[in-house]
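ok trying again, last paste got cut off:
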Amino acid sequence: MEACLAEATVPVTVLRAAMIIGSGSASFEILRYLTERLPIMITPKWVQTQCQPIAIRDVLYYLVQCLDCPESIGATLDIGGPQVLTYAQLIRLMASAIGLPRRIIIPVPLLTPRLSSLWIHLITPLSFQVARPLADGLKNRVVCRDARASELMPCTLLSPAQSIELALGKLQSGQVETAWSDAGVMPGDPEWAGGRVFSDIRKTDILADPTIVFDRICKIGGGHGYYAADWLWRMRGWMDQLAGGPGLRRARRDPMNLSYGDALDFWRVTAIRPPHHLRLQAEMKLPGQAVLEFDVELQEAGVGNQPPRSILTQTARFRPRGLAGLAYWYAVAPLHNVVFSGMLNGIRDAAQQAARHE
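nice, full thing came through this time. structure:
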């Protein structure tokens, strides 16, 4: 790509960086996932390779400043942060920033780039195709060969520790303006950017008005149960109670109505817009974050003797935390066909029965 651009008539400035520290950067996400999920790491020798990471904010600074720097035209400049570190040191910085105990790192000479990329693919959501070239490159020492970039475009660069803190965002300060569960797929975003979220999405047609459907949704939990496999829900409640969570003891404030902030067994109502949307945030003891959402849309208005038709979309999302989170999701996934399909079908049947008696 660099050579193709250089062949054109437009002047080109090339900025070469090692690891770019920013949420969504492939190398940064590998670092984050491995640190979160592996308290003990058996790593290739490249974990002791030196690199000079740079914050995404500083990369953007250089990209903008070079437009006003005539000396950079046609130049190839190495850019990097103020510190040279090994990948092992970066892993320990990441663990400290996340609030995890110090990671134990055991380098061994037997892991090839191919085996390393397969391991990255197994532990992180990044594909083998993405992980392989990254693993190939990690064995090379990548530091700036000179300081021309900082001499031509001087600035105070962020340290690796500062860069990691900024990349992790405002989670620890509680200043998150939107939750991960609100996000949908954005064009161009890799599926692993910001953390993988598992989803279980189910839909059904219901011969009833959205108001009736939403009313039946709002009756879940408490003494009413969950429309299907209530014994599984009770078992999950007992397990949560034994782990120190609320279990099913909190029931619900009102047997008929839900409001924002209501406790519902081991859920909390975090969004409600009758008769179209309900979101429940899990407060049970989990190795991750879970939400359960219901969305109701009117598909066809009733004409004559024909009842209206609505579409109910039921979405369960889970963002795992560490290997325990991954193990939890895969362990309970086989039960989803019983629990979530049963709930969806139960809501449909109850809504259609209520519509027939109106």
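cool. The two ends are 66 Å apart (CA to CA). Confidence is low (pLDDT under 50) at residues 170-189.
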